[in-house]
Amino acid sequence: MQARVTRRAALGAGAAALIAPALAAPALAQGRPARIGLILPMTGPFASTGRQVEAAVRLYLRQRGESFGGRRLEILLRDDTGTAPEVTRRLAQELVVRDKVQALAGFGLTPLAFAAAPVATEAKLPMVVMAAATSAIVQRSPFILRTSFTLPQVTAPIAEWALRERVQTAATLVADYAPGLDAERVFKARFTGGGGRVPLELRTPLRNPDYAPFLQRVRDAKPEALFIFVPSGEGAAVMKQFAERGLAEAGVRLIGTGDVVDDDLLNDMGRPALGAVTSHHYSAAHDSPENKAYVQGFIAANPGMRPNFMSVGGWDGMQLIAEALQATGGGEGEALLAAMKGRSWTSPRGPITIDAETRDIVQDVYIRRVEERDGQLWNIEFDRLPAMRDPGT
Amino acid sequence: MLTVLLDGLAAGMLLFVLSVGLSVTLGLMNFVNLAHGAFGMAGGYLCVVLLNRLGLPFLACLLAAALCTGLLGLALERLLYRRLYGRDHLEQVLFSIGLVFIAGAAVDWLMGARQQLITLPPWLSGRVELGGVGLGVYRLFLIAVCTGLLLALHLGLVRTRFGSRLRAAVDDAVVARGLGIPVERLFAVTFALGSGLAGLGGALGVEVLGLDPTFPLKYMVYFLIVVAVGGANTVIGPFLAAILLGLVDVAGKYYLPQFGAFGIYTAMVALLILRPQGLLARAAAR
Amino acid sequence: MRPALEAGFWLLALSGFWLMPEQLPLLGQAAIAALFVLSLDLLVGYAGVLTLGHAAFFGLGAYGAGLLAQQGWGEPLSGLLAAALLAGLLGLLTAPLVLRGGDLPALMVTLGLSLMLGEAANKLPGLTGGADGLLGVEIWPVLGLFRFDLHGRTAFLYALAVLFLLFLLARRITASPFGLALRGIRGNARRMPALGTPVRRRLVAAYALSAAYAGIAGALLAQTTQFVSLDALSFQRSAEGLLMLVLGGLGALYGAMLGAIVFTLAHHLLSEMSPLFWQFWIGLALVGLALAGRGGLLGLGAALLGRRA
Fold it and tell me: Which residues from A are below 8 Å from B when comparing CB atoms?
């Protein structure tokens, strides 16, 4: 019996932790590295999301050190190509079974997060969603926490703002998948609820979209404003067509969630982007010492890139994991999860909280306008809605 | 209505320039070159680099993109493609998909995974009003350039010595060789020309189609549709097919957005079932 | 292939259960890929009909089995059967459209049909979940005994067993008069009627059979991952299947399976070593193989063995 216990202590701590995390005392875990399985789209059509998140994760470890709660953080990066949920699921399984990770993280798109959710539940490991933004994701498993944002959360404010600006008719144009439908539904509900009218609702395909025909329809319908949501990286294409179709001259104002004026591409969009008003949780121009340090560090480490809202999800995901490790002295499984719930800190984006009940993020949402400063384009924040929750479905 | 027509026309023209080389390689060399889009991508990136980093004028960038990808095509043809002529189609697929993967990863390594954007010169941006209808200047430019190319290609094929040799070789390579036509050299030149055109198309398309390392895979299906519907050995066939595809695509998205891409696929399948050899097939001859 | 080699192949496959106990999810997906490529081989390698849209059947099987489970019938074996019937039926219906013209029209019609199906699945979110994928797929234990576990043990053995049984069936079929007729058609379609072979009917049957196989492969994926997404119907899947088939060697059942396994494992290894640029190395390998080899890996292997002997 004695022999068995020693052997277990020496060799089998990982396996024990897997089978019964509650039994694995922190003392056993101490010293061994804490592994984080980071699953992101690093190639394929959504690669830019993966690159941003990964850059932020690496930056975090460089700036804040690699040891937390007596354990060194080890990142195992995996590419799920962004379009193959069964690969995401398999990678999650492997990271749990073979690499014995202490947490899963990343998840670029909603279906990918959906596919991996049962793995987190079964393995009883925290799953930190750093990018995907459909409301319903956190309900798929009691082990999911989110450090990105939800579409309803950032959509409601812009609808209210448009009403305050006395906009009476607004068309919507969203990408045809869950986050897009979330955005469309919430915008319409808020906007019509406040007396506005939505004469035209358009949905563009998620893959290979060509926005020209859709925007032409908007121009022909002549609404006072156009609400846009498209996935990160697609904003530039919309913006170009918006300009080419002369929608601004036709009196259509561009509003939307911040995805369309993605910081990473904003400079290349050029003049057509000027004046676009969006609501979002993060702008690289956010005025705070935390953000200045973040942007500076990010640009120094990744020349040619500017941190966008995806990156900040990665940064805060790391912060969440690191703080929970620190608080539990290198804890694992459900102890780690418990330490993550209800945590608050000041992120580059401003103050944020991971709600203890919903495990979803509560954060300030800002209304911003694209302006030129020192020869570059930035999303300048001019209004703030403190502590927004996901308004729910 | 007119705007939709014009947009469809522009999209179709662009598609034609991008894919005409593919239909020639398939018709002439009986080679399934799925890497054709990679030449388009190369042209696009060249254009972006020259325009954004070196600040060359847009037209010069277009020209350079076409020339460089043409040369690249020539080099690859001499070094690699040549070895696979006459092989099984499926082995050619294996080879050219491999090239696509390599090209995508290489571009990613050099330029990153994000979308590349260009800023058009002022004289090409904005729109003009013609009889109350607003038309994008760049789309008009696309149509003009592509019409010019089409005419040049057609006349080149019909009027020049090179063209008649090419047509002879397409019809029957064995007899053509017997008549002393340098089929090998013809292949190389044609391949280079097709690649160059793809490069030009890629450069022209940055503004309209977007550009990232997945470009060759993203549009491969469209190129294949053009070639299959147009028939693999003429210039006019692919042209009509590309225009048709562009019009159906744009009109479908404008009038029936809820059906998505369904219209194109249905049209293609129906056309192929009715005319398996392509739009302008010399039907019963073979 | 020699019996000893054959037994070795299957024993090696099975031994993965003990040799790589931590990689079973990967091995399970390799077995599913092998089944998919096997179905392609029946069509492309034996009957000589080219296709770029085989994912249509794979995806239909996946959605069929997934929907069945989602609606409350999670019994896996009947799910496979339902998927096979569904995909086979679609094969029967579409075969006349595909078998009209030559190679290129066949490629494009199959491609077009699979794209249409993909678009239909995308546009029916009420049924398929659209771009978000089919959620809530609950699969009961296999034979009422073996629950699908996190380690992928059940999934691997289940997929391997199905692959083995369907392989045996495929071998019987290809060696039967029907299989020989198919080879004859591939060799010379004009002469076969003279031998009394109803070419068209044989090809339609082969098409439906291959479709059913692909449907089962899709159902396996849906059941083992308990999730179905549009990716199951994608052009990439069709193209990748074809790639694996050519890689392994056309017209040989072992070649098909070998190609699938090698490709899946290589893909996995490379993308783990280099998450950003794995495509480069895969591409290089494909180009090298196309330039060097004739008859894929199997041909290459045979050539090497032959040289040594």
Answer: 42-45, 47-48, 50-51, 176, 202-205, 207-208, 210, 212-214, 216-217, 219, 233-234, 236-237, 240, 243-246, 264-265, 268-270, 304-305
